[in-house]
Amino acid sequence: MSNLQLQRAKDFIKELSEGYGVSGYEFSLNHPIMQKFREYADEVHTDRFGNIYSLKKGTSGRYKMMLAAHMDEIGLMIKEIDQSGFLRFTTVGGVDPRTLVGQEVIIHGREDIIGIIGAIPPHLQTGGGEDAFKMEDLGIDVGMPLAQASGMIQIGDTVTLSRQGYELLNHHFAGKSLDDRAGVAVMAVCLEELGSLYHRHDVIAVTTAQEEVGIRGALTSAYTINPDLAVAIDVTHGSTPDTKGVVNIELGKGPAVALGPNIHPAIYKGLVEAAKEHRLPYQPEPIPGASGTDAWAIQVTQAGVPTGLVSIPLRYMHTSVETLDLQDVINCGKLLAYFIASLPDDLEGYLCY
Amino acid sequence: MLLKKLSELNGASGAEKPVRETIMELIRPYVDSMFVDKIGNLIAEKSGRLQGPRILLAAHMDEIALMIIDITGDGFLKFKSVGGIDPRVILSKPVRINESITGVIGAKAIHLQKAGERRKTLGFDQMYIDIGAKSREEASQRVALGDYAYFTTSFAEFGDGLWKGKALDDRVGCAALIEILQKDYDFPIIAAFTVQEEVGLRGAQVAAYHTNPDFAIVVETTVAADTQDRTEDEWVTELGKGPALSVMDRSTLYNPKLIRAVKELASAEGIPLQLRRGGGGGNDAGRIHLSKSGVATIALSVPCRYLHAPVSVISDRDYRTLIALIDQILRSNLVKVL
Question: What is the rounded distance in angstroms from the CA atom of residue B150 to the CA atom of residue B173?
Answer without folding.
Answer: 20
